[in-house]
Amino acid sequence: MARLTAINPEQASGKTKELFNAVQSKLGVVPNMMRTMGNAPAFLEGYLNLSGALGTGKLGLKNSNLIAMAVAESNACNYCLSAHTYLGLNLAKIDEATLTDARDGIAKDAKTQAILQFAKLVVAKHGQLNDADVAAVKLAGVTDGEIAEIIGHVALNIMTNYFNNTAGTVIDFPVVAAHVATV
């Protein structure tokens, strides 16, 4: 059940309308998460800016989507699992088995698996990683810049997970449920 109201794009005004128009032109639709974030245009703009900036990084669309799956599973965010499964299948062209495995930090190649396990570790340890944690991901060939991007993607996804779990955002994608129970 929605706890925060999703704004109808046709009724939006000001900065919210401007941001919705930008999302609509890029995606062809304004998803419920963004419609709900539109209640606070500064928040929506911050989300869009960070997402856009990270989208230009070295990790790429596939890895960013897989990180989103791992983080969403860790936070039991059904909205984000649903959205990133849909986007992974249809935009990033990732097969369903790979998306499902990513939820548990599993990947077929060693570097991707190290990225996903590191992302899940950042979540589990609330960013309090130690030398061995960082050394392990570097051993898999992940660069300092990529580590920084992983942390950025984790932070972005924690933000959306917490927002959607708190807001009770109505899922507007085929529903995918977390393996763990929500509170």
UniProtKB/TrEMBL annotation:
Gene3D superfamilies with a match to the protein in the record: AhpD-like
Recorded GO MF terms: peroxiredoxin activity
Ranges of residues in domain Carboxymuconolactone decarboxylase-like: 41-90
This protein's UniProt keywords: Oxidoreductase, Peroxidase
Keyword Electron transport: no
SUPFAM superfamilies per UniProt: AhpD-like
Keyword Oxidoreductase on entry: yes
InterPro entries: AhpD-like (IPR029032), AhpD_core (IPR004675), CMD-like (IPR003779)
One Pfam match: CMD
Record-linked PANTHER family: CMD DOMAIN-CONTAINING PROTEIN, SI:CH211-175M2.5
NCBIfam families tied to this protein: ahpD_dom
Protein name from the UniProt record: Peroxidase
